[in-house]
Amino acid sequence: MTGDSKPRVYLIGAGGSISFIGDFRTDYINYSYRNRHLTIEQMLDNIPEARDFAEVLPEQLVNVGSANITPAHWLQLARRINDIFALDAQAAGVAVTHGTATLEETAYFLNLTVKDRRPVVVTGAMRPPTGMGTDSDINLLDCIRVAAAPQSAGRGVLTVLNNEIQAARDVTKSNSYRLETFRSGELGCLGYADSDEEVVFYRSPARAHTVDSEFDVSEVEELPRVDIAYAYAGADGLVVNALAEAVWAASWPPAWAVAARRRSSCRR
């Protein structure tokens, strides 16, 4: 890379609110009814400023609402990012657009399965690009800027929304309506994509991630299904029994199912 070269950032689109097209400017909630999306190329065209500081290579993985993202998409995304880093030594980082409802899950999965120290940054939007006061453009611009910044490397997978850079391991969506919804609890954000166009970090995650993670999905074709039963005051055995029946019927070897039922009967 020459001194005059811009950092090369791969921009992968997965859909979500950041891409949805609503019918009117105050439609902040129900814009998904027609399932219309901007493509990742159209989204990039909306922020020509990004090309001032990065060579951006867009590609569309999928274009769906975040509720339609599945573990199969996680595997597809992780493999594509690992391929990018393996095949392009000049890639500075990868930026990913995603729906906010499952953004934290996808980001954390990538935090465990991407095998490179170069930055992977995930963003979304709380207001669609057709909405008044949308955060789509600035979040996308910040995502590319953080992915292009050399100081972002080695910190694991990051998210950036509302100018705040968060660690994928810590961040969670806390509100369905507010722009400042992504929070890291008592740990706080890692830094900011500031208004002066600087990317500033104040801390780094200490827990194992990416190249130091023990997870490797390079040979994995399908992730196992894991269902979760919540415990709460007044809960009975209905959900646990229903999940157990479904799992035994769907995926357990017959001998396991027989043994599990026998053990369950003995405990009653």
Salient structural properties:
268 residues; two-stranded antiparallel ribbon; single chain; eight-stranded mixed beta sheet; alpha/beta; globular; Rossmann fold; 6 helices
Structure description:
This protein is α/β, with parallel strands linked by helices and 268 residues long. The chain has two domains: 8-212, L-asparaginase, N-terminal domain (Rossmann fold, 3-Layer(aba) Sandwich), CATH 3.40.50; 225-268, no CATH class. The protein contains six helices and ten strands. It has an eight-stranded mixed beta sheet, with helices on both faces. The longest helix is centred in the N-terminal third of the chain and has 17 residues, at 71-87. The protein is globular. The relative contact order is 0.14. The model has no long low-confidence stretch (mean pLDDT 91).
Write the layout of secondary structure elements.
Blueprint (H helix, E strand, L loop, with lengths): L7 E8 L24 H6 L9 E10 L6 H17 L3 E7 L5 H11 L6 E4 L12 H13 L9 E4 L2 E4 L4 E2 L8 E2 L7 E3 L5 E3 L36 H13 L3 H14 L1
Parallel strand pairs: 1-2, 1-3, 3-4, 4-5
Antiparallel strand pairs: 5-6, 6-9, 7-8, 9-10
